[in-house]
């Protein structure tokens, strides 16, 4: 196919979006190059969901069976009280809002699988974009190269977005919550199980998966302001959960030595446009819906597929492809960002009264014979958002 000379495309970030985009660009006859600040594909990470339209993308990559083989196999999810007593419980998929063939996997496993599928794509590890001047890209390493297009797939705190669109503060909107997650010893001996403890303004989770001999602790809490340094982050986390019951004090004791400590604000990216000149954005860099949506990975997979497809359809003409990509993705993004803003209010309850009432309702629902039908109604908004886009059968 003739691509009007627009064949060499630089992708900033070996993220889920970036690697998926590299795969599809190569499939469509373009020459993608991926630059990644890390020295290798990032392993580990928390568990993520692939739902709805994103499953179609994975299937079209020939990876659906392998993705299903990477499932975390979390069998049960329960809400516990201060003393660790289970208030309510259900199967792992219902607890995570999954239906049909939806798959929960570790982020690192999916990243590795996508990287293997994109075999032959050029990767520049341990480097990052320093400046973009037309087709000329200068890297932090001093390397200077020319690319027809540049795509930012470098996450919530996108360097590409800052260079091409302006400072982060214009586009990243803090939702008023923080999130932290890190590995801890599996001292409760959980076997593919997830436990959730809810307090006023703060929620804590502990889970184990099939692939992990340890466990992961996750914290979501109402907070104002951003904290950048790790020492300050850990202090803020400890202070926010001071006086919490259940296993929270013991989980917090493990954060100082955790090799994978992660901390950030829950935020969404909202932009009037995702493209300017020869630069476009995909995934969290363009339209992060926050972890509260449970749809970040699916948005990344679908967004990368659509962007690559529109570039193919336009024979490499970015002036046609970028607007077409944006027009197709906008309703899907809006549905999933709305999901994030709604979910967080149910995940983190604001008062002791809300917590008490929630525990009462969970106990009642757990005893009802129609529990499965009730849960199906709870899951329906997630499924509706996950399928809120019609993907072309072919490009």
UniProtKB/TrEMBL annotation:
Q: Which Pfam family is an annotated match for this chain, by its short name?
A: FAD_binding_3
Positions of the FAD-binding domain: 7-332
**What is the protein's given name?**
2-polyprenyl-6-methoxyphenol hydroxylase
The protein's GO terms of the molecular function aspect are:
FAD binding
- InterPro entries in alphabetical order: FAD-bd (IPR002938), FAD/NAD-bd_sf (IPR036188), FAD_aromatic-hydroxylase (IPR051704)
């Amino acid at each position: 196919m003739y691509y009007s000379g627009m064949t060499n495309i630089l992708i900033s970030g070996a993220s889920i979006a970036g690697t998926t985009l590299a795969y599809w660009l190569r499939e469509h006859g373009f020459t993608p190059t991926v630059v990644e600040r890390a020295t290798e594909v990032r392993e580990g990470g928390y568990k993520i969901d692939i739902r709805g339209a994103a499953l179609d993308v994975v299937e079209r990559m020939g990876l659906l069976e392998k993705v299903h083989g990477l499932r975390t196999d979390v069998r049960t999810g329960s809400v516990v009280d201060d003393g660790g007593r289970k208030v309510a419980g259900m199967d792992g998929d219902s607890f995570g809002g999954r239906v049909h063939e939806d798959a929960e996997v570790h982020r690192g496993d999916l990243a590795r699988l996508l990287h293997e599928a994109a075999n032959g794509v050029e990767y520049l590890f341990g480097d990052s974009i320093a400046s973009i001047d037309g087709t000329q890209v200068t890297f932090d390493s001093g390397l200077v190269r020319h690319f027809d297009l540049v795509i930012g797939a470098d996450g919530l705190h996108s360097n590409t977005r800052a260079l091409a669109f302006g400072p982060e503060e214009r586009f990243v909107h803090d939702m008023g919550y923080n999130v932290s997650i890190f590995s801890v010893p599996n001292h409760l001996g959980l076997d593919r199980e997830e436990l959730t403890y809810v307090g006023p303004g703060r929620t804590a989770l502990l889970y184990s998966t099939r692939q992990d001999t340890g466990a992961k602790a996750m914290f979501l809490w109402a907070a104002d302001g951003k904290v950048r340094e790790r020492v300050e982050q850990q202090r803020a986390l400890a202070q926010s959960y001071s006086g919490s019951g259940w296993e929270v004090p013991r989980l917090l004791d493990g954060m100082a030595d955790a090799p994978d400590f992660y901390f950030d604000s829950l935020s969404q990216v909202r932009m009037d446009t995702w493209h300017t000149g020869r630069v476009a954005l995909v995934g969290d860099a363009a339209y992060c819906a926050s972890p509260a949506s449970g749809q970040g990975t699916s948005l990344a997979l679908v967004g990368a597929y659509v962007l690559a497809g529109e570039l193919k359809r336009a024979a490499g003409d970015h002036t046609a492809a970028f607007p077409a990509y944006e027009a197709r993705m906008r309703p899907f993004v809006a549905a999933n960002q709305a999901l994030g803003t709604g979910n967080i209010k149910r995940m983190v309850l604001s008062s002791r009264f809300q917590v008490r009432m929630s525990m009462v309702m969970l106990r009642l629902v757990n005893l009802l014979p129609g529990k499965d039908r009730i849960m199906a109604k709870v899951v329906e908004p997630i499924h509706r958002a996950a399928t809120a886009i019609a993907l072309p059968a072919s490009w």
